[in-house]
Amino acid sequence: MRDQIVNSRFFKQACYIDGRWIKSNEDWIDVDNPANGDIIGRVPKFSAVQTSQAISAAAQALPAWRATSAAERSALLRCWAELMLQHADALAALMTLEQGKPLVEAKAEIVYAASYFTWFAEEAKRAYGETIPAVKPGQHIVTIKQGVGVCAAITPWNFPTSMITRKAGAALAAGCTIIVKPASATPFSALALAVLAEEAGIPSGVFNVITGNASAIAATFTASAVVTKISFTGSTKIGSQLMANAAQHIQKISLELGGNAPFIVFDDASIDKAVAGAMAAKFRNTGQTCVCVNRFLVQRAVEPEFRKKLAIAMAELILGDGFDEGVNQSALINRAAVEKVNDHINDAVAQGGQLILGGVSCPQQGGNYIEPTLIANGHSAMSVCCEETFGPLAVIIPFDKESEAIAMANDTPLGLAAYFYSDNIHRCWRVAEQLEAGMVGINESIISNASAPFGGVKSSGLGREGSKYGLDEYMEVKYLCFGS
Ligand code: NAP
Fold first, then answer.
1. Residues with beta carbon inside 6 Å of ligand 1?
2. CA 155 to ligand 1: nearest atom
3. Distance CA 415, CA 243 (A)
4. How many angstroms is it from 97 CA to the middle of ligand 1?
5. CA-to-CA distance for 52 and 245, rounded, in angstroms?
6. Residue 216 C-alpha to ligand 1 middle, in angstroms?
7. What angle do CA 87, 93, 96 make, to 5 degrees?
8. pTM for the full model?
9. Where in the chain is the domain with CATH 3.40.309.10?
10. Pocket test for ligand 1, best of 42, 158, 260, 467 (most atoms within 8 A of CB)
């Protein structure tokens, strides 16, 4: 399988700038397979010079691209999406090789990623302005929307393709050009997307991918007076630094940052549905999503039943190489990720947590494996309650009253996703309104799709991706005042 992937035309060990594939003369970044540590290839370790070239290319391409009609941009985005779907198997295999996730999930990510191009292909045609009643006779007030210009995107490794398409889809639909800097752990999925951009006929310089030294590339983006917008998905720490640096030229900024999602199970919930939801919201991508549950808050009366059923469901998870049939839990992205989960397990157990299942990292398998782990008797002083775990650890914290659960759920500086299960409609509205999160799943745990606004409150970020709001992030409202 590996040979087939690295010999395919999608496997590019070069950056895509101004419609050309550029290799490094000096430094490279090795990319490994998290399932076994094998090096699968390398990409250029570019820095400020090449980033400036990419910015110039995006700036040169901008006038012609923004002059295209919305219908033309829409057709190109649709074509790009269709190519992704046509080659979904090859793109998914490449993703599993560099990111580790089970092949079924990688394929689902390609379909999900393509849906952002399809969505924004439609939204491109609906970037409507307004007419506003004038304040003086004979005057006319009108607004139009225009793309912000040259954009830069920095993306993480957990969703190597979709975190790019939901930025680039919106940017290109709005008439902007973009430079993407993907995570160094998963650059090949981004470069494969560039192969298809070329095939779809996206003009040179409109979509560029640069790999390399993250801080030097980011510093070049923020120091540039040409880049008008930065969109970042990743950790809150780096997002905060970028926001400070973007202040130099008052660049617009969108931030999709970390989460610490609570999942509340009330005593009036269907426990079977809650367990099914818990499995999906906790163990997708082996716990490595920003909307993964970090804390299970369970009302005391139903805690034993929920715990027992969750343990049974977790015992059926299959850990292994993402390419193996039936595997649904894979290696984590690197050793540091395994160590963080281990630290959270050890801390929880040291603070009185009861280990029900798992708790073992498996270095003997050669990759970054850790068993799905369940801990009961959790409490809010544990590290797992205060920090994003990003791995397959589920901790159950019992509570008595609704107000207590809401207070615990909101007791974090982060506010990305939150979930709760209840069959009481009054409670559903009451709790949903009080949770401090950008997204709330109510008796639902799969909440992300191209039609819905994705984003956080508090330190989880700024702005929204996907939906009609996602396009606005890449557009300016211009007010025109016509005199009599
Ligand atoms: P990260 O360390 O912040 O990395 C994300 C991106 O930032 C990578 O491309 C990385 O490049 C780059 N980067 C690293 N240092 C930088 C610097 N000094 N300046 C500018 N860019 C820099 O985050 P991660 O650990 O890879 O990703 C996981 C985090 O992303 C989690 O917190 C997760 O919750 C969050 N996330 C949020 C969302 C959302 O939509 N809210 C979605 C997915 C993930 P290198 O790879 O080259 O270091």
1. 154-159, 163, 181, 183-185, 214-215, 218, 233-235, 238, 242, 256-259, 290, 388, 416, 456, 461
2. 9
3. 18
4. 20
5. 17
6. 15
7. 140
8. 0.97
9. 261-449
10. 158
**What residues are annotated to the active site?**
256, 290
The strand pair at 140-147 and 150-154 is best described as: unpaired
CA of 399 to the centre of ligand 1 (A): 33
Angle between helices 70-86 and 187-200 in degrees, nearest 10: 120
Per DSSP, the residues of 29-79 read: EEEE-TTT--EEEEEE-B-HHHHHHHHHHHHHHHHHHHHS-HHHHHHHHHH
DSSP characters for 5-19?
HHTSTT---SEEETT
> How wide is the angle at C-alpha 204 spanned by C-alphas 203 and 208, nearest 5°?
115
Amino acid at position 5, single letter = I
Over residues 3-38, the pLDDT tens digits come to: 899 999 999 999 999 999 999 989 999 999 999 999
Looking at the domain covering 2-257+460-482, what would its CATH class be?
alpha beta
What SS3 string covers 381-440? CCHHHHCCCCCCEEEEEEECCHHHHHHHHHCCCEECEEEEECCCHHHHHHHHHHCCCCEE
Ligand 1 pocket mutation pick from 154, 184, 260, 414 by most atoms within 8 angstroms of CB? 154
Residue 151's H or E segment, with its range, is strand 150-154
**In the structure encoding, which two tokens stand for residue 286, read together?**
């082996």
Give the CATH number of domain 261-449: 3.40.309.10
234: left (phi over 0), alpha (psi -120 to 50) or beta: left
Structure confidence at residue 361 (pLDDT): 74
The CA distance from 245 to 234, in Å, is: 16
What is each CA distance from 356 to 1, 20, 201, 297, 301, in whole angstroms? 37, 54, 54, 16, 19
pLDDT digit string (tens) for 90-134?
999 999 999 999 999 999 999 999 999 999 999 999 999 999 999
Residue at 239: amino acid letter: G
* Both structure tokens of 102: 């089970």
Distance 394 CA to ligand 1 centre (A): 23
Query: Which residues make up the CATH 3.40.605.10 domain(s) of the chain?
Result: 2-257+460-482
Give the strand pairing for 261-265 and 417-421.
parallel
Q: Which atom of ligand 1 is nearest to the CA of 237?
A: 3
Atom of ligand 1 nearest to the CA of 258: 34
The encoded tokens of residue 483 equal: 């005199």
Closest to 27 measured CA to CA, from 56, 48, 11: 48
SS3 breakdown of the chain: % helix, strand, coil, rounded to 5? 45, 25, 35
Would you call 476 exposed, middle or buried from its count of C-beta atoms within 10 A (0-12, 13-18, 19+)? Answer: middle
